[in-house]
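Q: How would the structure tokens look for this protein?
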Amino acid sequence: MSDKRIIYLDNAATTGVRKEVLDTMLPYFSEHYGNPSSIHSVGRDAKRAVENARKQVAAAIGAQPQEIYFTAGGSESDNWAIRSIAEVLEKKGKHIITSSIEHHAVLHTCEYLEKKRGYRVTYLPVDEFGRVSVADVKNAIAEDTVLITIMTANNEIGTLQPIAEIGKIAHEAGVLFHTDAVQAIGAIPVQVDALNVDLLSMSAHKFHGPKGVGALYIRKGVRISNLIYGGGQERNLRAGTENLASIVGMGKAIELAVAEQPAYAARMTLLRDKLIDGILRSIPEVRLNGHRTERLPGNANVSVRYIEGESLLMRLDLVGVEASSGSACTSGSLDPSHVLLAIGLPHEIAHGSLRLTLGIGNTEEDVQYVLKVLPGIVETLRAMSPLTQPTCIA
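A: Here is the predicted structure in token form.
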């Protein structure tokens, strides 16, 4: 068995389940395993556990329990929000506004609506830091606009969007507003009223809960169509026996994450800045991707010129550093990140991206170790690269 030191810096892709969360979940696999729809005492116990988790999720984002619908994760929540609003409001209008740097769960859903349902979708550009212009959102609203969907924080470069301002503009125009907050829960304050959102997606495995469970917040009064037909679960909108243990785990995880958020953000921001500053100081020809300060506390994303990102990841893995070059959902693609292209990077520089995302288990010693090994790896790869001639760089 290997005793190689492992430093996990891919927390934007997924986080480990906290012990407190796992301990809360375990009894619901073998002891309290009832079906929440059953009327006997074991079923009623399971139902109470689901509803307690619903209260925990609601309290974490300043919502009411009846506004929380459990799903299988962030992608399902995004799909449900966008497709159902498009279906319900199709007669009112067929225009949706989103951004060019959304998660593919949003972008591909919008593309489906364009191709199959005749919707018109406006994909707003972003600036060099990955920020959407509030003025652009306002100018894009038309008489037939039925939904605006802009992510709270970008999963690749960590940039935070002006969600509250966008939500205010949407409501002034009578347009519904959805945000993908998958990366934001537990990292920054997320309160649905303060953000002026009507629908909000979240996923438990991003804040130390289990995989395969998430939730969609739907503001009271917003009409939405069924995701799955069948039984009466989730107030008749999403049929299927509830993922009991995982729902319980999500409730515990979000309760812990939100309670600890201020301390977490302070510590992660300190480590993040040491990491970013150290990389920019010790390695030439590196640029930071995303906004310098308006970004997630634990996100550091850089582009290293003259090398290819996959080679960099493999070399880091050999010395025990687990990182990524972008979204885990597109890791099998050879195409450069659509997010990095949207902020203006040419293909060859976008291909040299490195995403290091910190979590609760990381320490200053982890940061120092990365700063120790990364410069040498970059130097070695550049010596081997055919892209080392300055003429190759735009």
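Residues 390-394 have pLDDT under 50 and may be disordered.

DSSP finds 15 helices and twelve strands in the chain.

Upvote if useful.
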